[in-house]
Amino acid sequence: MHPLGEHRGRTGHEEPEELGERNAEVGDHRREDGAAVIGVHASALTRSPAACQAAPALNHSSRFGRRSRGSIVADVERHAHRHGGYERLAWLTVAFTVLVILFGAWVRITGSGAGCGQHWPTCHGEIIPRTDSMQTVIEFTHRLTSGVDGLLALALPILAWRLFPRGHATRRFAVISFALLIVEALLGAGLVVFELVEHDASWARLIVMPVHLTNTLLLLGAMVLTAWTSGGHPPPRWRGPAGRIALVGLVTTMVVSQLGAITALGDTVFPVLDAGLGARLADVHRDSSHLLERVRLVHPVIATAAALYLFYLPALLDRVGASAVGPWGTAVSVTVGVQLIAGLVNILLSAPGWMQLVHLALADGLWIALLLLAARATQPESTARPSAAA
Q1: What are phi and psi of 378, to 5 degrees?
Q2: What is the Cα–Cα distance from 143 to 127, expressed in whole angstroms?
Q3: Which of 74, 106, 137 finishes a domain?
Q4: Which of 173, 303, 376, 382 is 20–30 Å from 290 (CA)?
Q5: pLDDT for residue 378
Q6: Helices (DSSP H) in 48-168: which residue ranges?
């Protein structure tokens, strides 16, 4: 056979094997690249749990062949950045809401609830009042800060609808937050329109005040859970021993807070002129004392009993095998102890305005810590352990 023919024959016989080896090498390289991309993708999602929820499409390895490693990592980081921004906004809204709550208490303490008359949402019939009255300035400023809080609360569901998939807990809690804020505004408007302000001691105000505070706690709780779930954490689960124990703690705290709202109203309408526990006992035993004066001793007694349960709450959760109780359990126990001391000081000083604000701020902090403890203690072990390790 001609040498050229032999060469062609060998080439025709050996080329398929060489081509197969070359294709196998290319396939190996592609698999290595895909594995590297998956590793980078998983690492990025570990740093940001929210990104994993936001970009489920990135988890399909079939797309790696059509997309570069850089584009996939960029998508993951972009989702993580957007969700991180939402989480920061949600926590900012929580902090601002606490300030608005404290400002509302200052309105009551200073007797500025009628600072804008019976007009709402205007102030003395004007959009921007022109007055030298400090009570008007305080009430109008409180309305302005409440309006800013309303805009923040409105942004939460709007952005949640754009950033989170259907059925996500963040969507649900964001909508609940905005709805409760509307109820909060209507309750505040009712206090003004029906003149349940300043030194009014009617039964209507006695009923509305604890209702108002209950809505405030629910609003704050919904905002906290909006921020919590937007960070990739599951919401609290109330079924099971841990959920029931945590729920009892939350309900107990709410009842004590309602009594505290009535007591604070009594301190505003019927202030104790003499400092100390003796002066309060004397007011309680007067035949002419009002119900708001008599309830002053009920709140400390029930608050002390509730504090014993709340202080022991982390140990109860740990006993039933709740996950990751540690840091938030410590926060609850410490806050309860500080709150008891603040309550005692408040009584001994006859409830000065600044001390009432400190007492209320600690109550809000305890409520937030309890919610986060419940959320952490009732989540599945698979999600609790990485967080606890971090």
Answers
A1: -105, 5
A2: 11
A3: 74
A4: 303
A5: 87
A6: 49-54, 69-109, 134-163
Residue with tokens 């005040």: 209
**CA atoms in the 13 A half-sphere facing the CB of 341:** 6
Residues facing residue 123 across a β-bridge? 126
pLDDT digits (tens, 9 = 90+) for 183-204: 999 999 999 999 999 888 899 9
Q: Establish how many alpha carbons lie within 13 A of residue 371's alpha carbon, considering only the half-sphere containing its beta carbon.
A: 24
Instruction: Report the C-alpha gap between 94 and 91 in whole angstroms.
Output: 5
Provide the domain limits for residue 243.
236-381
Contact (CB, 8 A) for 359 and 335:
no
d(CA 185, CA 153): 12
CA separation (Å) from 106 to 112, 198, 274, 358? Answer: 8, 12, 22, 11
Whole-angstrom Cα distance, residue 322 to residue 368? 19
Candidate from 44-48, 71-75, 93-97, 135-139 with smallest mean pLDDT: 44-48
**Looking at residue 81, what is its pLDDT?**
53
Residue 204 maps to a domain: no
User: Is the pTM for the entire model greater than 0.70?
Assistant: yes
Q: Out of 46, 74, 102, pick the residue that ends a domain.
A: 74
DSSP assignment string, 149-184: HHHHHHHHHHHHHHHS-TT-HHHHHHHHHHHHHHHH
- Number of structural domains, the chain? 2
pLDDT tier at 279 (50, 70, 90 boundaries)?
low
Provide the phi-psi class of 126: left if phi over 0, else alpha when psi is between -120 and 50, else beta: beta
Other Cβ atoms within 10 Å of 101 Cβ, number: 23
- What are the structure tokens assigned to 379, written together? 């989540």
Percent of the chain with pLDDT over 90: 54
What's the one-letter identity of residue 62?
Answer: S
> Helix, strand or coil for residue 214?
helix
Q: Quick check: is 99 in a domain?
A: no
Burial class, 224, CB count within 10 angstroms (exposed 0-12 / middle 13-18 / buried 19+) = buried
Number of C-beta neighbours around residue 328 at 10 A: 21
Cα 317 to Cα 242: distance, rounded to the nearest angstrom: 6
Confirm whether 313 is domain-assigned: yes
